[in-house]
Every structure is written in C-alpha cells, then in structure tokens.
Write a structure and sequence with these properties.
Blueprint (H helix, E strand, L loop, with lengths): L2 E11 L5 E11 L3 E5 L6 H8 L7 E6 L2 E2 L4 H6 L1 E4 L11 H11 L6 H10 L15 H13 L5 E5 L7 H16 L3 E5 L3 H7 L2 E6 L2 E7 H8 L1 E8 L16 E2 L5 E7 L7 H11 L3 E8 L2 H12 L1
Parallel strand pairs: 3-8, 3-9, 6-7, 7-8
Antiparallel strand pairs: 1-2, 1-4, 4-5, 9-10, 11-13, 11-14, 12-13
Helix pairs in contact: 3-5
C-alpha cells in the first residue's frame, strides 16, 4: 500500500534546548487508521503539529501525498484536516458560519451541500443555527471535526478526539471515524484511551521520549507481544503453590482459589498438557478453567517501561 505521509529523520529542538523529537522515520499508508500512542510529553502533539505546518522542524523532511510541507506548504496543508485537543471555536458564531468560514480559509468555493452533508453525518444539522457557546462539550468536539472536514481533506488528524467525552458519545465518534475511512480518508489519531486504538486502528505506532519505539499492524502486535493466561478455579483453596509445580512458574491469586499459568503465544509448546498432568499427580483438582489474552494496554505499558 502506498504512503500518503512520509516522515524522514525528523527532529525538533526548542529554544530551551529540549529535544521533543529525535530522528523520527514514519510512513502512514493511504486509507488506513493509524493510532499514535505514547505517555504525556512523548512527542505526539509535536509530531502532528509539524506535519500540519503549525510547528517548524529543526531537521528532517515531511512529504504529504508528494508535497513537501515546507517548500509546498499550501498544497500539503490543503490535504489535511486537523481536530485539535482544545475546544477552540468562536463562541458567538453559529455552527453553520463557523464550519463555512473554515472552508473559506482554504480558498475553497462555497458549497452549502457539502457543509450540510458534513453536519448531517456528525448529527449537527439540527444545530446549524445554534451559537457554539450553547452547545455541550461533546457537540463542540463534533463541530471541530466538521471544521476539519469542511475543505474536503484526504487526511484527518484527530488529537485526543474523545478526551472528556462520555462513553456513549465516544462510541458514536468511533462510528464517524470508521465511515470517514470507508470514504477514503486516511485517519491518524492520538489517544489516551487505549481501547480506542484497540477497537479501531489498523496499525499502532508507539512514541516515547521523542522516539518511535515501534510501528506494527495491530493484529500482528497483539499476536507477537500478547501473552495468554490459563486460570484454573480450584476445588480446594491453597496456601501456596506446591513445590512439585515450581517448574511451571504458577501464581496463586489472593485468596488461594485460583492458579494462574502464563504462557507465550509464540512458543512451540504451551506446556498446558504437562501442567495438567502434574496437577493430576499432585492431587490438585479444579472446577473450571479459562484463558485470557493480554490487551493492547498491557503491551503498551510494557513497551514504554522498557523504553525508559
């Protein structure tokens, strides 16, 4: 799949001497949903701001669909819609006027039909004549998305799009993002809600201390770095794991009612058969067993800890 954004050897050092980005290389594929994860201060917003032309890079190059963001700024920026973290809109303008004005900033001719479609898709059409200041926080965030889509961009950056939004509205916005991707828009999102990335992203990038530490297809990341656990609900509680089972590196839950066996999903053998044989030999019975797999959040926390 071809790249719509190509970042090469990108660095950013501020006047204070703080290096926010260190030699970033990154390709965003056309038509994908790419989730950029990282702790606060990792460099997510700086990276997005450079690609969108808001912050100047110290070194390196960024191409947006073949346009250099420095030498061909206007063409590159016209490809991009940006939904920032902050709810920054003119409180005393109507929804329609705000979104229409954003379209005009990109030199696009008036297109009431397009503005109406965007508002309808975001469930804002019935609010078109309302002043921004009268809207709820969730509706204001939808207006930010409408503004970003007003000039028909092919790339949409969503910087913490559901921060402070309730769970129901968050799921509505996930549906909006999926429908945008289905229409051919490339989506790049940063998020604190890792389940958001797990739910929607095609690929995951993890940034920490200004460096990209991993870029991977989500399914492959879960497959390679995910661990599975077998949990055995015991017939009788144990005070401790018997010495005869030490080789299996089992853990016992707090009240002694459950044995937990962790195994590598990539291993040739899981060791479960041997474990069950040894349990039988030691006379430990169990009522039930089930497996769980580590979430993207577990993987993310582990990678960030390793990167520190």
């Amino acid at each position: 799949m071809s790249s719509i954004i190509s970042v090469r050897d990108l660095s950013k050092t501020y006047a204070s001497g703080f290096q926010a980005l260190k030699s970033i290389d990154l390709d965003i594929r056309r038509g994908e949903i790419f989730a950029l994860l990282g702790p606060n201060g990792a460099g997510k917003t700086t990276l997005i701001s450079i690609v969108c032309g808001i912050v100047n890079p110290s070194e390196g190059a960024v191409m947006v669909d073949g346009h250099d963001i420095v030498t061909d700024y206007r063409a590159a920026r016209a490809m991009i819609g940006l939904v920032p973290q902050e709810l920054t809109t003119d409180a005393f303008e109507t929804v329609w006027a705000t979104v229409s004005f954003s379209r005009g900033l990109f030199g696009k001719k008036k297109n009431p039909a397009h503005i109406a479609k965007v508002l309808k898709d975001l469930s804002l059409l019935d609010k078109k004549d309302d002043m921004i200041r009268t809207l709820s926080g969730g509706m204001k965030r939808r207006v930010l998305i409408a503004k970003a889509l007003s000039h028909e961009p092919r790339i949409l950056f969503l910087d913490e799009p559901t921060a402070g939004v309730d769970v129901e509205l968050r799921k509505d916005m996930w549906d909006i993002v999926r429908s945008l991707r289905a229409s051919g828009v490339t989506i790049i999102l940063t998020t604190h809600y890792i389940e958001e990335a797990e739910e929607m992203a095609d690929r995951i990038g993890i940034i920490n201390n200004g460096e990209i530490i991993l870029v991977e297809d989500k399914a492959e990341l879960m497959r390679k770095l995910g661990q599975k656990q077998l949990k055995l609900e015991l017939k009788k509680k144990l005070d401790a794991v018997p010495g005869e089972l030490a080789a299996h590196r089992l853990t016992l839950n707090g009240d002694g009612s459950e044995l937990i066996y962790t195994y590598d999903t990539q291993g040739e053998r899981t060791g479960i058969t041997a474990l069950l044989d040894d349990l039988n030999r030691t006379g430990i019975g169990f009522r039930d067993l089930h497996t769980t797999q580590s979430s993207l959040e577990d993987i993310f926390v582990g990678l960030v800890r390793q990167g520190k």
